Amino acid sequence: MNPQETSAAQVFLSHHDFVKGIALKYAPWPGLMEDITQQVFLEFMNKESRWDLSHDARPLLATMTRHVAMRLWRDRTRDQPETVRKLAEHIRRLAEERDRPPRYEDEMGALRGCLQKLPEKSRELIQLYYYSDVSTPEIASQLEMKADTVCRALSRVRDKLRECIHRTLDQGGRAHV
Questions:
Q1: Which of 73, 86, 105, 147 has the smallest CB count inside 10 Å?
Q2: Are 87 and 10 part of one and the same domain?
């Protein structure tokens, strides 16, 4: 590698997280972000003699990333018309959901029912964290637990509540946690 190539590689590596962030923004599905980032690196290195590396490379890398993402998306969808059809169907359903009136009252009723079905310890965590605005380290101290244990417990309770609410709204029946 000559000094110019080494310098270009160092510039790219110093902006690698920036490029990944842009790629994630433009990637139509999660697995494509890495492909976009790798392709941008290859194209950046292939044309390294054209770049003035004394200036900020982020605008150049952002533009390259956007173009690579669009090109990869176009290439992949050309070969996968079923994927495009599914994506269009998903977008259509989202648009229809937007036109429906909100179900906040139904969701709040389901949430209340689901909260009542929780074990006492889980309800106490929810009460402290969401209603009393107590931080996780403070909850951990009060309940003689580790803070990361409190975070995991809150996450599990949220998952249970989410599932219970969906089940209740979908079935119109009684909530079971």
A1: 105
A2: yes
d(CA 168, CA 105): 13
Q: What is the DSSP letter of 27?
A: -
Rounded to two decimals, the pTM is 0.44
The domain total for the chain is 2
H helices present in the chain, as ranges:
3-14, 16-26, 32-46, 58-79, 81-99, 104-117, 120-126, 136-143, 147-171
Verify that 66 and 18 share a domain, yes or no. yes
Residues 80 and 127 in one domain: no
Q: Take residue 3 and report the two structure tokens written for it.
A: 């000094």
Tokens encoding 53: 């590396």
**Token couple for 71:** 């090109």
- Could you tell me if 53 and 7 are in contact, meaning their C-beta atoms sit under 8 angstroms apart? yes
State the residue range of the domain holding 60.
Answer: 3-98
Question: pLDDT tens-digit profile of 93-131?
Answer: 777 766 666 667 778 888 889 999 999 999 999 898 888
Cβ count within 10 A of residue 136: 19
The full length of the chain comes to 177
